[in-house]
Amino acid sequence: MNISLTDFLMLCLAGGVGSMARAGLAAGLTRFFHPAGAIFVINALGSFLIGGALGILLSGTSVLDAAQAPVGFTLFSVGLLGGFTTVSTFALQVHALWQEGRQAWAGGVALGSVLLCPVFALVGFALASFVYGGG
Predict the structure, then answer these.
(1) DSSP sequence for 21-82
(2) Is the confidence at residue 65, as pLDDT, over 60?
(3) Partner of 36 for a Cys bridge, out of 80, 93, 126, 133, CB 3.0 to 4.6 A?
């Protein structure tokens, strides 16, 4: 993959913004959920958003012109949402649940994430395709 220095720096910046958004949202959500539940919500939301972004991109009605759509999609999906969602934090939180003696909850979060995040991506894609692709 060839990427210009400018695009690479924008990708890094987008990843940083996504990470900050994840940290802020996780802090807010842990008032209501265990940290593992907060990360699950964040990963599900990120999956939904990336599916929606792909649906918009493939509909051909992207707000970006055709030449910039792949770069914009990469910045959003790999950069922003790559920083927003995280497997490492998810794994750490599942491990913490396990260490706390909450093995059933750890298994539920792990299995739920593996099964439901792709479903959220599909729902986001289908919704965006319906809205931007004309149904």
Answers:
(1) HHHHHHHHHTTTS-HHHHHHHHHHHHHHHHHHHHHHHHHT--SS-TTTHHHHHHIIIIIIHH
(2) no
(3) 93
Structure tokens at 48: 């939904």
Q: Using 50, 70 and 90 to split pLDDT, how confident is the model at 67? A: low
Buried b (16+ CB within 10 A) or exposed e, 14-30: bbeebbebbeebbeebe
Q: Which residue has the higher pLDDT, 89 or 61?
A: 89
Contacts of 36 (CB under 8 A, 6+ apart): 90, 93, 94, 96, 97, 105, 106, 109
3-state secondary structure of 8: helix
Question: Any idea what DSSP says for residue 1?
Answer: -
